[in-house]
UniProtKB/TrEMBL annotation:
Hydrolase recorded as keyword: yes
Signal sequence segment: none
InterPro entries listed in its UniProt record: LOG (IPR005269), LOG_fam (IPR031100)
UniProt entry keywords in alphabetical sequence: Cytokinin biosynthesis, Hydrolase
Family: Belongs to the LOG family.
PANTHER family recorded: LOG FAMILY PROTEIN YJL055W
UniProt cross-references to Pfam families, sorted A to Z: Lysine_decarbox (PF03641)
Catalytic activity line of the entry: AMP + H2O = D-ribose 5-phosphate + adenine
EC identifiers of the protein: 3.2.2.n1
Identification of the protein by name: Cytokinin riboside 5'-monophosphate phosphoribohydrolase
Coiled-coil regions, chain positions: none
Gene3D superfamilies registered for this protein in UniProt: 3.40.50.450
Length: 198
């Protein structure tokens, strides 16, 4: 692509493929949607698991791919040398900061503890007013059913409010969810507060 991408979507996902084909299909669909809609993928820079799948699908559909990976994980997560931009940083904090700053919106698809940590941090930053960028959870094949139920339990037990739940969007239709996030991102502004925290 020689023109500037119309949006930058940060995808949090696993460096493993998971046990179900449905997870890989979801990653493929998300990457294809980003690329075919003139977007840019911001992700963790690996070529294994769902990370590799979403990056390849984005490129194949004509999108740009920006990977950000800590030096310590270059070998473990198999850094993707085919990224349009591959940033090798020193720490996880630098990784997450660069991903946050470069993105217009965020979506978590199936993954493990790293995916959860990234999702919860960007959600916390939004709750605190550091940014107003949209956040989504793609509940592919019901993967996040248990987590979403637990989060509602947190609300019920008084440790969260419904407005905090309203800061994230979830669904199992990748196209509808991505379109909603991109549409909302058109109204989102990066605040000075986000620059301060990252």
């Amino acid at each position: 692509m020689t023109h500037s991408p119309s949006f930058s979507m940060c995808v949090y996902c696993g460096s493993r493929p998971g046990k179900l084909e449905a997870f890989g299909e979801a990653a493929q669909a998300v990457g294809h949607w980003i690329g075919s809609h003139g977007g840019q993928l911001i992700y963790g820079g690996g070529k294994s698991g769902l990370m590799g799948t979403v990056a390849r699908a984005t490129r194949e559909a004509g999108g740009r791919v920006v990977g950000v990976i800590p030096k310590a994980l270059v070998d473990r997560e198999l850094a993707n040398e085919l990224c349009d931009e591959l940033h090798v940083v020193t720490t996880m904090h630098e990784r997450k900061a660069m991903m946050a700053e470069r993105s217009n919106a965020f979506i978590a698809i199936p993954g493990g503890i790293g995916t959860f940590e990234e999702l919860y941090e960007i959600w916390t930053w939004r709750q605190l007013g550091y940014h107003d960028k949209p956040i989504g959870i793609l509940n592919a094949h019901g993967y996040y059913d248990g987590m979403l139920k637990f989060l509602q339990q947190c609300v019920g037990q008084g440790f969260m409010d419904e407005w905090q739940m309203g800061l994230i969007k979830s669904g199992d239709n990748h196209a509808a969810l991505l379109a909603e996030l991109v549409e909302e991102a058109g109204l989102a502004q990066q605040s000075d507060a986000l620059r301060a925290v990252i």
